[in-house]
Amino acid sequence: MDSYLQKGVKLKGVLHIKGTVHMDGDFEGELIAEDHLIIGKSGLVTGNIDTYDITNMGSIQGTIHAKNRVSLMADSHLVGDISTHHLVVEEGSNFEGRCKMIETPAQSHAASARVTQPGRQNQPGLAHGVMSDGSAGESEMPPEPDSISDFKLPVPDLNFKVLAWGTSAVLLVGLLGWGYSNFRGDDLGSIVSRGQMLIEQKKYTDAEGEYLKALKISRSNPEVYAGLGEVYFRKKEYNQALSQFQRSIELKPSENTYHLQLARTYSEKGQFQEATKIYKSVINSDPKNFQAFYDLGELRLREGKREVAIENIQLAARLNPDHIKSHELLADLYVEDNKIEEAVGEMREAVRLKGDDPALRMTLAELLVKGGREDEAFKEFREVTVLSPENFAAQMRVAAIYLQRKNYDKSLVTYQKAAILEPSDIHVQTGLGAVYLKKNDFQNAELAFRKATQIDPKNSEGFYQLGKLLVSLEKLGEGQTALETAVGLDNQLSDAHFELGKIHKQNENMKRALSAFEMALSADPKNVNYMVEVANGYVERKSPDKGIKILKEAVALEPDNGHVIYGLCSAYRRKGFYRMSIRHCEKALGILPQSYEVMNRLAWLYAKKKINLDKGLKLSQATVEAFPKRPDYLDTLAEVHYSRRDAKLAVDLMKTALELAPNSGYYKRQLWRFKHIKPKPLKRPIPVPARSPESEDTGDASSAAQASDSQSLVSESIDHDIPNSEAVEAVAPVNSL
């Protein structure tokens, strides 16, 4: 989108504009656009418009000349004449005026400015259209635009095509391409035709006038009475409608259409018995009258007789497989009964009959999503965007699927198309932000997320996405503010609580971190990631039993989750059950063989128990090689060398660790220990017994042995003359607590 005039802007005069322009403000005068002009839902234009393409979602009073295409969207208003090559009118649009169809359009300014790429032929693919025999044809889909600048409305093969049926605007093309008013006649047939046309336009008072005029010419024509009855039926003046339909039947009793109209009127009045008698009478005289079965089915629905209703509508569909209403109604009923496959089948039949109707294809696509047939659904959503590029919902669906499939370039282009249609939609902006984030375009991602929060300051998801991005960009203060706003708007937004917990943890505020993680877990009690963080929080705050209980629940949900197993390793280490801790760390390393945190913890445990020191040395060396500036990894390697009775190398490593963290009291105590306390001789390794998870901390003899292990370590530290009241910390590194 090249330009955007927001709501509240008012302009007057002659305006020349280039590129794609979205106008949500007010304009009065003459408007000349070279490419695509979009009048938004709040847009109001008073004056004449000359453009290449125009999409009207707002209100226009004036003449439109569009060299290529005019699209009148639902709830739009146009009072004025149109001249264009291609016209699309959605159901619910309002158009009062005349339309003249022009020959093949000239290229837009943007299209004529582009140079064809070498080796690329100008061969647009074919879209769904109407074949010469009237059937819905399906052939190759047009190629997708490579960028948003290529987003142009397609030119159909037909000179005149209305894609929406039953709209309030019914257009007639005369010999010179002008409306019916240029050649209207006053013979009976013309008057009846005009009356029917006015009914379709929902101009019931005007239609009534035409039929009353017809009665002055003839009072023996049943079509006139039937038409007048239809006017009163639409106006819900059912008693007058009954009189007119009864008169039409008196004049032509063999015409079942009049009987069906009479039955519908009784049905609307709630006189179901009278209506049922008429329907059955029509069926008896014409057992293949599908319309009678269909109408009777609708009546049974109103009576609450659902099964009988479905049987009647199914009969109507079998009698006339081309009756689109039967297939649509059956699809709706099957959806209500959760029979998605049956609903899909009926909707496919509807699409077969009217393949160029984007609304039908959109419904089919949504049903395919419900049925878990995402690939088929995606094809239908794509087809909707081809048939109706202005279909915002379809563009959003396609963009989201591309994002899910990691096709970020196409997802971005499609979200940009949606942004042209609805620039103030928060879901468009959050979608754009998500794609930019995946493409590592952090600047545009931040702009998109900020715009989403500006559009709707109460949108918690927008603030969450913005906060998460800002944290990743190391803007912790702004990120924390955005996340706090998100949870303030929606206290059940678990992801936002979780991100806040990570910030507090990074700031070493474990009390607030644990509180945030607990809020996340409260909102989503089965989320294993949240369970791990809450458990780790309890372990850090010296409540390992609480942590172990939560982690066991997590194991039940995901037995092979390495992070959960590692959490148990840490919890049992904190509790002093070193052998149990070793067993869980070894299992975690089997699941997460590249985890340096697990390697470091296991190497430290081996050093403390003075077992598997060769393996511990290899693990610790791997961590230091990968992260030579991590003082905690250097401390573990020093511990391993100390246990291997190489105190000199341990001292050298601790000096390096202190250079990296000169204010660490723990590292100073470690250095003192390695310098002044001679390592004890290595003992014969005691194998770690295999035990079932059920006996991990049940207080049996093995648990007593674990407690003895812990006590011996504490006693070892107390016996050393270390000048610090927290001597026990010299045994367990800070990084592993």
CATH architecture of the largest domain: Alpha Horseshoe
- Tally of distinct domains: 3
**Which stretches are poorly predicted, pLDDT < 50 over at least 5 residues?**
113-140, 152-184, 692-737
Q: Averaged pLDDT, please?
A: 83
Main pleated-sheet profile: 13 strands, parallel
Quickly give the structural class. alpha/beta
Describe this structure in words.
This protein is α/β, with parallel strands linked by helices. The chain has 3 domains: 126 residues, no CATH class; 342 residues, Tetratricopeptide repeat domain (Serine Threonine Protein Phosphatase 5, Tetratricopeptide repeat, Alpha Horseshoe), CATH 1.25.40; 163 residues, Tetratricopeptide repeat domain (Serine Threonine Protein Phosphatase 5, Tetratricopeptide repeat), CATH 1.25.40. Helices cover 57% and strands 9% of the residues. β14 and β15 form a beta hairpin. The longest helix has 19 residues. It is elongated. The protein starts with a strand and ends in an 18-residue tail after the last helix. The C terminus is likely disordered.
